[in-house]
Design a protein that fits this description.
By secondary structure, the protein is an alpha+beta fold. It has one domain: 2-Layer Sandwich (Alpha-Beta Plaits). The protein contains three helices and four strands, in the order βαββααβ.
């Protein structure tokens, strides 16, 4: 089997009543992940039940493509607002908040306003082993 994509999912806990603000701030993000070399797909998933956990899903052609984006200027611009929210705690070995387009542990997601609209985020990483799409 040839080289398969990698998927990064950032599970972001959003306080009650802040979901719309989270989505608005996300829509205003600086930097364009979709223009990055090796980028394949982005999804921002809102829960349809009472859960407060949003998922930021990105798919990359390789781990190297994801890491290159993490260390680039567009990632820094898109996440500059972190300084306005809580300081993210970075998992061991991470050079920057480890996300597809969400944030590191404890990092808020905001572009100013009345404080953080996310209280915690957890990075999940996967290798795509099989993919089926509609023709």
């Amino acid at each position: 089997m040839g080289s398969m994509s990698v998927v990064k999912i950032n599970a972001v806990d959003v306080p009650a009543g802040m979901g719309d603000e989270f989505l608005q701030r996300f829509a205003k993000r600086a930097g364009s992940v979709e223009d990055q070399p090796g980028f394949e797909e982005f999804l921002l998933l809102r829960p349809t039940d009472d859960s407060r956990r949003f998922f930021v899903f990105t798919r990359w052609e390789s781990e190297e493509a994801f890491q290159t984006w993490l260390s680039g200027d567009d990632f820094a611009k898109a996440h500059a607002h972190l300084a306005e929210d809580q300081r993210p705690e970075r998992p061991e070995g991470a050079a920057a908040p480890p996300t597809g387009h969400g944030h590191g542990q404890g990092g808020g997601h905001g572009h100013g306003g009345d404080g953080p609209v996310a209280v915690n985020a957890e990075l999940l990483a996967f290798e795509v082993m099989e993919r089926v799409t509609k023709a």
